[in-house]
Target: DUF2125 domain-containing protein
Amino acid sequence: MEVTQPAAGGKASGRKWLLAVGALAALAAVYAGGWHLAASHLRGKLLAALAGQDDRGRSIDCRRMTTGGFPFSMTLNCSALEVDDVEHGISTTLGPAEARISMFSPDRVRSTFSGPAEIRSVQGLLVSEWSALASEVGFGLNGMQSIRVEADALKTNFTDPGRGNGLQATANRFTGSLDGESGDLVAGVTVEEAKLARNGVALPLPPLTVDAALTVDGRGDLAGRLDRQALYGTNGEIRRFAARLGEGRDIVVTGPFSVDDAGRISGKFRIEAKNVAAWIEAAQQALPEAAPLIETVGSLIRSYTKGDTDLSLDLTVRDGQVFVAGFIPVGEIPPL
Model:
């Protein structure tokens, strides 16, 4: 009887297969160990960062912090998020929040937030709710480089405790962004279908949509630390500020601007408004207590446009003083 011996090639293939499996297992073990080490390091860094205040008196408290997301991402969860800004006397509270970093794009942090959010200051209390709120933050070699925030079905209520007045606003969608990747700061805001109410009574206005974009020259570094004083001593341009109130009521503002070291604004702005009479009528309905002033402004506009339904106007601003046609003073913009 003849005995068949296993082929030498079969043994070699088996050894290669075992080596491949062993290599994959070792690689998986190294990856898992590296992931948990990175997660532990991230948690330690965050705990250290959240332990005190920064140089501007701001502190963040992430309640019941947990980490997870293995194997393809890293997540940080908070049962609640509290931010205190001692310098400006502002305290903010948010509901549950999650931040996620993909292992394939570690330079971007995507976060989701649950409401409500409360912002408390000496000016009053602001409470916001939403159906969805998300943000994405991009990082470069020098820190935060961009941020984008999106909210759906936004509802906001502001209460002035001193006067007992309340202002309510809703919007189908809100989008805000700051991007410094180009070296300039590029900011944008979009608000869709906004409605306003005062003390629970809706203002007699159709939904308002606003789309705005501006740049600040050479100040892309402000994407991660934008505040009023950060704009002192800067130059930029309002690339577009467009407000649409329906029924052909559109306003578009464009033009360059500058901010001096005291926060005073200068610039030259072009205003294009359509159906001006309808804008004036809407303002009178929304603000009946200011009807005489609105009528006076309307009379000036009608005189300037000579009865035309549309308005094209050049405004000059010098150190906060506003002029029409370069020399007729019409108002003042307070410093930032």
The chain has a mean pLDDT of 83. The first strand starts at residue 58 and ends at 63. Residues 8-50 form the longest helix (43 residues). The helical segments are 8-50, 276-286, 291-305.
